[in-house]
Amino acid sequence: MKIGFFDSGIGGMSVLYEAIKVLPYEDYIFYADTLNVPYGEKSKIEVREYIFNAVEFMASQNIKALVIACNTATSIAIEDLRKNFDFPIIGIEPAVKPAIKNCEDERKRVLVVATNLTLKEEKFHNLVKEIDHHELVDCLALPGLVEFAENFDFSEGKVTKYLMNELSSFDLKEYGTIVLGCTHFPFFKNSFEKLFGVHVDIISGSIGTAKQLKKILDHNQLGKGSGSITFYNSGHKIEDQEMISKYKKLFEILDENQKEYF
Asked: Is residue 200 part of a domain?
């Protein structure tokens, strides 16, 4: 049996990247809802319908676990999904808790960057309210990064120009941690590093989600596959080798983003 990964688009590949590190002998299904991306700019009702349609399809593939590799989808639907399906469902949320822990002592600020819909959700606001006792958290929606990623456009010049414009009203020296609250954003980690400098930690929830997946799959559930990945776009299996290569190329981009640039 395979493990399913679901996202509105290609962003979930950044979570799958971390999962393969800790579970290299599993076989995976990656489902990108590319016909309906981006979720972050749509209504909550509309997005919920897309999510349930996608998970119904994933359930039909006889998966043994599902990772909702999308912060927006997790915040909107994770609890209802768990009530409706009998396999383990693991979500992802902005890594606000470790970010605040990193910054509390020095009273550095935390910047959470995500989609509009994630930042508007009550689940996110409740999380921040519960733990942000010193009011350190600022938020910024960056929908343009989703668009860049979905177009497989990782040109540093365009991305840097966009980020500089969106961050123009922020004092970058105030921040100790940047939370990448959308799974598309780790593809641009280097651009954030170059703007904020070496003193800033840049984190996401991907590693924690991968570890939680491994924890849930006990020894008897671990696979003996080869780390194979079957790709689907909105329920249609991707057979085109050029497109499959483009998806797998994303792992190389993430490898580059692991390197230190200072």
From this structure: yes
Q: Which residues are annotated as a binding site?
A: 7-8, 39-40, 71-72, 183-184
Instruction: Tell me whether residue 182 is one of the annotated catalytic residues.
Output: yes
User: Active-site residue among 182, 202, 210, 217?
Assistant: 182
Is 139 annotated in the active site?
no
What's the rounded mean pLDDT across residues 162-171?
97
Among 23, 55, 69, 70, which one carries the catalytic annotation?
70
CATH label of the domain that carries residue 248: 3.40.50.1860
Q: Is residue 261 part of a domain?
A: no
The domain total for the chain is 2
pTM of this structure: 0.94
186 and 180 Cβ atoms separated by less than 8 Å: yes
Question: Is residue 171 located within the same domain as residue 101?
Answer: yes
